[in-house]
């Protein structure tokens, strides 16, 4: 459609601007809908008891590599625990989980359980089953779906969070 004069040109420019604004708004809407949420773990210190002064840890200057590695491993292990859905079946106080399908990890992991042993329990869960729990309930695929590093981080997290020892 072609119109003579500036009125036709003004209508065409207005239509173009309107289409551009609608396309921009739709892009923003679709962009927000397609965004994936992120999960962040936040650690909060317990409040001081009545009459006590909250003591902030004093900085020691530098953390040792072992301490830094352990903290990173624990944080990563907590993320693996949450991401793999372990808390839906297992109770673990450190994770705030109360699952009842599998054993309570705070009670079933003992001082004689170590990181390597826990890794084995995750990868081959039917090899050692806690008394009172049936075989074939825990997925047999964690050795395939989790990386070796994730299994190790998860095991270190469980050792740090339960009576188990490294």
Short description:
By secondary structure, the chain is an all-alpha fold.
What does this structure look like?
This protein has a domain of about 90 residues: Orthogonal Bundle (Cytochrome Bc1 Complex, Chain D, domain 2), CATH 1.10.760. By secondary structure, the protein is mainly α. The chain is built from six helices and two strands.
Give a topology summary.
Elements: H1 6-33, H2 65-83, E1 91-92, E2 97-98, H3 105-108, H4 115-123, H5 142-145, H6 148-161
Antiparallel strand pairs: 1-2
- List SSEs in N-to-C order: HHEEHHHH
Briefly note the structural class of the backbone: mainly alpha
The average pLDDT score comes to 78
The CA-CA distance between the termini, in Å, is 80 Å
Anisotropy-based shape: rod-shaped
Q: Which strand order does the major sheet show?
A: 1-2
């Amino acid at each position: 459609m072609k119109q003579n004069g500036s009125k036709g040109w003004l209508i065409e420019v207005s239509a173009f601007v309107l289409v551009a604004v609608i396309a921009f708004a739709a892009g923003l809407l679709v962009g927000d809908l397609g965004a994936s949420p992120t999960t962040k773990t936040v650690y909060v210190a317990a409040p001081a008891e009545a009459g006590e002064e909250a003591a902030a840890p004093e900085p020691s200057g530098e953390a040792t590599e072992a301490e830094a590695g352990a903290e990173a491993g624990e944080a990563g292990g907590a993320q693996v625990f949450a991401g793999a859905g372990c808390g839906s079946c297992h109770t673990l106080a450190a994770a705030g989980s109360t699952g009842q399908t599998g054993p309570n990890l705070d009670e079933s992991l003992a001082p004689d359980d170590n990181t390597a042993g826990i890794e084995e329990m995750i990868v081959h869960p039917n090899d050692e089953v806690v008394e009172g729990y049936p075989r074939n309930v825990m997925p047999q695929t964690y050795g395939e779906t989790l990386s070796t590093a994730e299994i190790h981080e998860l095991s270190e997290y469980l050792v740090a969070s339960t009576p188990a020892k490294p």
